[in-house]
Every structure is written in structure tokens, then in C-alpha cells.
Design a protein that fits this description.
Length: 395
Amino acid sequence: MNTKKVMLVKYGEIALRKGNRSFFEHHLLDVIRKNLNHIPSVKVSREQGRFLIEDTEGDLDSNKILPLIRKIFGLAGFCNAVKTSAMDIETLQTIGAVFFKEYAAQHGAVESFKVITKRSNKNYPLTSNEISAEIGGSVMDTMPGIKVDLHNPAKTLWVELRNNVYFYVDYLPGAGGLPYGASGKGMLMLSGGFDSPVAGYLAARRGVEILPVYFHSPPFVSERAADKVRDLAAELAKFTGKIKLGIVNFSDVQVHLRDNVHPEKLTTFLKRAMLHISTAMAEKENALCIINGDSVGQVASQTLHSIAAIDSATSLTILRPLAAMDKQEIIDIAKQIETYPISIRPFEDCCTVFVAKHPENKPNKRVIERIEGQIMEGLAPLMQKAVDEAVYEVY
């Protein structure tokens, strides 16, 4: 039989797009090829609403390929399939029966099954149901004792008639979302906690290229706190391909604010300074937004009053992917994306430095802006220095 093992890759919501669907498809195709370009014999192509991955030298080793592409955003699922160019129903019956019997031998006895056929060629002489019936009959002849169950089968044999014909059983889920970078760039305010890495992951899943910025405060926090953030960036890079982390020395800004504003208002001013700096860095990177891990009402700086008083420090849109989540929901995602073990390391970041015992949780935006205007002459040069001396690392 003229068959070979291949992989069909399905994409999710980009299939629903019309005018810009081709843009997303090509973007996603480029990412897949980039991840596999070190394997010269592997070919990636489009196949009528799917991506096809095959080895030009023979059967594809899916165990080698899948780990390299499974975390790519925009991919909905992966099917280990056999491909054939044969179109006559007799050959398809034989291929389908042999494929399904080999699958059952490798994965354990299958008590019941059904066949579902999808055909893009409407000129084929048999309907989808007729093809399914013919192949299903061949499976039953080959595997005595197996039953057909159209409503709740143990396994489903899928048959897709496209430019070629594909047979597969299992569907392995992918990361979903949109192709990374297809939605533009955003500055991610990355700390060592649970929230901001999860916010970065969720934004990246919607196609935003994330550019993390970490505010470091030596000697008030240890270098281990910075290492913790470096490790978080490296973990996120497993989903994005690579990440450029900006590390900002925030100590002089913090000391200046500590010495010039009331302790209860200090957290608000520190957050505003971070936004000022992030905005300046975003302009350098042509980023369109700022991303943070705020969850409404979780802490004093995340009440609606505080958010309003802080946000006016930037003209950029602020994305808050976690705004309506509770802490347990955030932690669950952190465990899923494997940032949780890093975030629980006991090294505090700059947000814990000089924090008042009772920070203001209902600051007045106009009052905050007026006070900031009064101290800006001394503050602005320190923030600009922090921007100019930022260190960048790629993961």
C-alpha cells in the first residue's frame, strides 16, 4: 500500500477569519517551520484548512516533532495520521482497516468504534456516509468482535478526503489562541509573583508579542530576586520562541519617592513611576500597550480608585488579562504553564520595598497628579536614567 505516517495540524479560531485569514496562516506556518528548520527532511505545507507535516525520507517520527511545536500559540490540535494518494474505495477500505487494527494493537483492545468521513471533493462518487459505511465494514471484517456504536464509541476513525486521503484516530490538543506576534507588541510588567507571568502568557496566547520589563532594586532586594524573574522569562519563552527581558534599576527612583511623598501614597507613586518608565521603553520598541497582572480588588494598588489614579501616568492602553480572576484561578494557570514552582521561591521583589503598613486604597487621581507634578523636576531625570541604563537579556 502507498501510505506514509504524517501529522495533520489543526488551527482554531483563525479558520473563522475571512479577509486576514491568509495573514494568520502564513504567520503560523513561518513559526512552525522555524521550530523545525533544524530537521532538513521535514516539510511543512498547507493542506486545505490544515497544516501537513511530513518527512520527505519516509515515515514521520511524531514523538520527535510534537514537543517542538505543541506549545505554539494558534495551533488547536495534532493528529498522527497515515496519508495515501489512493482514491478508490477498495484501497481505502484496506488502508483504513489495517491502520485501525494496528492502532488497537498498540493502544489496547477497542470494544466499539465508528467512522466519520469528511470530503472536500464533492465530485467523489460516494457520499461521506457511504465512505464511512464501506470502511467501517472492512474494519469489522478485519477485527472480529468489534462493535459499531454511532453514539458513544470507544474510538472514532476519522477519514479526510482532501488532495490526498488521511486516516487518524486520536486528537492531541494544542495551545490554541492566535499566532504569537500577530497582534503587535506589548510591554509586560513582570515581577516574581504568580500574577504577571500568567498575564504575559494569556496576552501572548492572543497573539501579543510580550516584552517583559523587570524593576530591580539593589541593594534592597537580592540578586536572587532578579534570577527568579529571569527564570520566569525563560519559562514563558517556551511558549513564545524567545523573549527579550529588560531589567531596570529602580532603586534611585524608589528612594526619591520614599523621601518626597507620604508613606500611605508611596505604592501609588511607585506604580506610576513604573508606568512612566514602561511607556518610554515601549516607545523605543514600538509596543502598542502595557500588560500587567492586576486583579481588581486583590490588593490596595488594584482597587478601582487606585487603578484610575495609576493609569493616568501613561497614554498607552493597559491590558489586564487577570482583571476578573480570583487568586486560585490565577494559581491554577500558573501550575498549568509551569511558572508556579518559580514564583513560590521566597525572594521578594521591589514591590515589597518601603511599603506602608496601611497603604491608601482610595487615592484621588487629581491629588496624585498634582503631587507628582510638584516632585517631577527631581523625579524625571531619575526615571530617564533608569530607561537609558536598562539592561536587555534574551531567553
